[in-house]
Amino acid sequence: VDASRTSRHLEETINNFERQKMKDIKTIFSEFITIEMLFHGKALEVYTAAYRTIQNIDEDEDLEVFRNSLYAPDYSSRLDIVRANSKSPLQRSLSAKCVSGTGHSGVVAHACNPSTLGGQGRWIT
């Protein structure tokens, strides 16, 4: 009698274990599939937006912008003006020494190469 009761109890334990295992596997796969569907749904939204953006590209307008960027009439003169106005009087005089080669060679080298100025942190002490 005890052997049959122990056998039924063991069988119930095995059945409960298998039932719980199937529930756990079902839950895990359901969550995985839900996450994957959300991911692919979002990816589809992104791809749809990208597709619409690509379809809305105006080739003629883009080509016109490209052509205009090739032939900017006064780009170099604007750049020269910006360069001339962005230097302080000290920077202009140091640049002149660097170009002309006047002054003491050590001073000119340091003035022309700001990476040699100062120690750690580039502070001049």
TrEMBL record:
**Pfam families per UniProt:** FAM92
Its GO biological process annotations read: cilium assembly
- Which InterPro entries does the UniProt entry name for this protein? CBAR/FAM92 (IPR009602)
Recorded superkingdom: Eukaryota
Gene Ontology cellular-component terms for this entry are:
ciliary basal body; ciliary transition zone
Against PANTHER family, the record matches this protein to: CBY1-INTERACTING BAR DOMAIN-CONTAINING PROTEIN 1, CBY1-INTERACTING BAR DOMAIN-CONTAINING PROTEIN HOMOLOG
| Name recorded for this polypeptide | Family with sequence similarity 92 member A
Q: Which organism is it from?
A: Nomascus leucogenys
Q: What is the lineage of its organism?
A: Eukaryota, Metazoa, Chordata, Craniata, Vertebrata
